[in-house]
Every structure is written in structure tokens, then in C-alpha cells.
Write a structure and sequence with these properties.
This protein has 123 residues and is an all-beta fold. The chain is built from no helices and 11 strands. The strands form 3 sheets. The protein has a 6-stranded antiparallel sheet with strand order 1-2-3-10-5-8, with no helix packed on it. A 3-stranded antiparallel sheet has the order 7-6-9, with no helix packed on it.
């Protein structure tokens, strides 16, 4: 039985600039086809616009407020919002609130840094 507590997951910074704690993935559990991580962004911080060629993601906002950008569209998101991010779609999230933004991120297939492709703001 794989049970990983958030407090025991070592945080690291991804290529897009968010700090994540990988909760369940092939690196630390019997899970092979997906991953679950907790991500955090400080007030005013944003991830670098990026896309994943293979991976689809779901963000689920736990606390804080942010502007989510998917392709040419942007909207405000907050606690309880779930965001679908298809493979190949440029995306970023910007913490617009006064406190830390905390969200869950699921990836299928599981997160791999080699499937993160950074883009400039003008792309």
C-alpha cells in the first residue's frame, strides 16, 4: 500500500518555475500511468508559458486566486476550480492574490520534465 504524506514529499522547482511536491508517481509508488503533485506559487509569481507534447494535465485549485491562461484565453480561478489542460496547449498560471496559491496537478501519463517545453510570451 502506497501512502505518501505531503509533509514527506521533497519539494522541487519545475522548469516552468512552480514548486511542486510529487505525491504519487512512478518514482515513489506503484502508480505507472499518471501522477499527482501539489504545486505552489508565491503571491505575484507566474509559471513560464509552456506546453507538454504528450501529457494532459488537470489543475485543481485548493487555495488562493490566479489568472489561468490556456492558449489565447485567460480567466480568473480560485478554490474549487478544476482546469483541463490538453496536450500541446500553451498554458501558464499567475498568482494574483495576496497569499500563496496552492493547487493539485494530475498528469497522464505521469509528469516527466522532458515533456515540458518552455515558450516565450510572444509565441
Amino acid at each position: 500500500m502506497d501512502v505518501i504524506n505531503q509533509r514527506d514529499a521533497v519539494p522541487f522547482t519545475t522548469a516552468d518555475g512552480s514548486t511542486i511536491r510529487e505525491l504519487l508517481a512512478h518514482r515513489n509508488s506503484s502508480i505507472r500511468q499518471q501522477s499527482l503533485a501539489e504545486a505552489r506559487l508565491a503571491s505575484g509569481q507566474a509559471t513560464t508559458p509552456h506546453h507538454h507534447r504528450v501529457t494532459e494535465e488537470i489543475y485543481y485549485i485548493l487555495s488562493g486566486t490566479a489568472q489561468m491562461t490556456l492558449g489565447p484565453l485567460s480567466r480568473m480561478v480560485g478554490p474549487g476550480d478544476a482546469i483541463a489542460i490538453p496536450p500541446g496547449l500553451r498554458h501558464s498560471i499567475h498568482n494574483t492574490g495576496p497569499s500563496e496559491l496552492v493547487f493539485l496537478c494530475t498528469c497522464a501519463p505521469g509528469y516527466e520534465p522532458t515533456d515540458t517545453f518552455l515558450e516565450s510570451l510572444s509565441e
